[in-house]
């Protein structure tokens, strides 16, 4: 029955993806399919065909589309023509905005050319004002609306990066329309204020994206529901929630890699893993966990190892090893040090300043003391007093 269902699903998705012109819609559908696949995977269903249809779906553009939406507005990042079918990192919003701005420049030039001769500086001011008060404000309103998904926030962030680059095209185009030498407007002092503000909006988009990603992570990190904290059996293979968590992170990072710059991908990866690390520690501290035993620690340790392996694999396979000193795995340091301490045969070493600085530097003693009070059946934890 499942083979029949998944066959129909992949067939429908293939057709739908082939008719999609909006990257935002494409990413939204991928989001839903990823969530469905993650859920089914936890129940043992084979979801390989679903993953394949996601990997094979792209917002393909023909050479004529490339000329209309990339070359026409100098949005390419390389002089080398890509192989077609071409996949743009931005959605249709970018060329549409570029067309509107180009039209605005033409109307401004047409109007000012009738009333004065030296009108380039005025056109530039009009252009700056339009980009700041209309384009940038609209982007911020959309970002702050509270009605966007992870995929939409990701696409907006990617679009802003391209629009920021397009500001150079806008000012060159304005110069050409005003019959001004282009080289005279390529000086730093001739740049647009809007370009700086778009960069700020990009930061806001990333903050929103990370917040939405963290909310999604919280849906998976159901530790209080998924983990038996006083189990009498040792569970060496981890818990089911972590399979879903890693599946989501893998899908997220793959999508980010397609449309955002490398530094943005690093920012998303570190932000997500730091949030997971904080969640591990917060759960141990939460009032909903009254007691836990050694078996629970072993179980959580297995979960954390799975996550650390994923973090290392993704960091090096993405080429970050040659760029950044701090790997993704380092974002999990606090959680790792806490589990190491709880698994230690000599937990009292935490009070030794030298050992603590070497092995437990990310841990705060008051948090450790609160967590240790919850350990079931380990009287040695009560043999040492917390720090003053």
UniProtKB/TrEMBL annotation:
Instruction: Classify the source by domain of life.
Output: Eukaryota
Q: Which UniProt keywords apply?
A: Coiled coil, Exocytosis, Transport
Pfam families, per the entry? Sec15_C
* The keyword Coiled coil belongs to this UniProt entry's keyword annotation: yes
Instruction: Tell me a GO cellular component.
Output: membrane
Biological process (GO) annotations? Golgi to plasma membrane transport; intracellular protein transport; vesicle tethering involved in exocytosis
Q: Which spans of this chain does the record mark as coiled coil?
A: none
Q: Which residues form the Exocyst complex subunit EXOC6/Sec15 C-terminal domain?
A: 62-374
Query: Which PANTHER family does the UniProt record give?
Result: EXOCYST COMPLEX COMPONENT 6, SEC15
Q: Which family does it belong to?
A: Belongs to the SEC15 family.
Write the protein's name.
Exocyst complex subunit EXOC6/Sec15 C-terminal domain-containing protein
Its lineage reads:
Eukaryota, Viridiplantae, Streptophyta, Embryophyta, Tracheophyta
């Amino acid at each position: 029955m499942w083979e029949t269902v998944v066959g129909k699903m992949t067939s429908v998705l293939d057709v739908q993806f082939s008719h999609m012109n909006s990257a935002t819609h494409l990413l939204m559908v991928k989001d839903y399919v990823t969530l469905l696949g993650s859920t089914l995977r936890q129940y043992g269903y084979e979801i390989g065909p679903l993953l394949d249809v996601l990997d094979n779906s792209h917002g393909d553009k023909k050479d004529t589309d490339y000329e209309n939406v990339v070359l026409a507005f100098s949005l390419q990042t390389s002089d080398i023509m890509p192989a077609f079918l071409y996949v743009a990192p931005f959605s249709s919003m970018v060329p549409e905005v570029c067309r509107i701005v180009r039209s605005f420049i033409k109307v401004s030039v047409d109007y000012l050319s009738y009333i004065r001769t030296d009108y380039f500086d005025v056109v530039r001011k009009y252009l700056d004002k339009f980009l700041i008060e209309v384009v940038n404000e609209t982007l911020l309103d959309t970002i702050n609306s509270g009605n966007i998904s992870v995929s939409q926030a990701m696409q907006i962030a990617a679009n802003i990066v391209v629009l920021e680059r397009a500001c150079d095209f806008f000012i060159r185009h304005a110069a050409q329309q005003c019959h001004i030498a282009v080289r005279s407007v390529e000086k730093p002092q001739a740049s647009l204020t809007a370009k700086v503000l778009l960069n700020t909006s990009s930061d806001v988009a990333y903050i929103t994206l990370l917040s939405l990603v963290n909310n999604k992570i919280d849906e998976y990190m159901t530790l209080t529901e998924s983990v038996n904290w006083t189990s009498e059996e040792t569970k060496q293979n981890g818990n089911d929630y972590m399979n879903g968590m890693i599946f989501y992170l893998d899908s997220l990072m793959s999508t980010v890699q397609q449309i955002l710059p490398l530094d943005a991908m690093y920012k998303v990866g570190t932000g997500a893993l730091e949030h997971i690390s904080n969640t591990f520690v917060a759960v141990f501290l939460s009032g909903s966990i009254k007691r836990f035993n050694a078996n629970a620690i072993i179980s959580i340790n297995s979960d954390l190892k799975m996550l650390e392996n994923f973090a290392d694999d993704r960091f090096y396979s993405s080429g970050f090893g040659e760029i950044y000193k701090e790997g993704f795995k380092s974002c999990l340091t606090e959680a790792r040090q806490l589990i190491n301490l709880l698994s230690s045969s000599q937990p009292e070493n935490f009070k030794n300043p030298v050992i603590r600085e070497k092995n437990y530097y990310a841990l705060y003693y008051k948090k450790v003391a609160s967590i240790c009070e919850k350990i079931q059946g380990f009287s040695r934890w009560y043999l040492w007093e917390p720090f003053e």
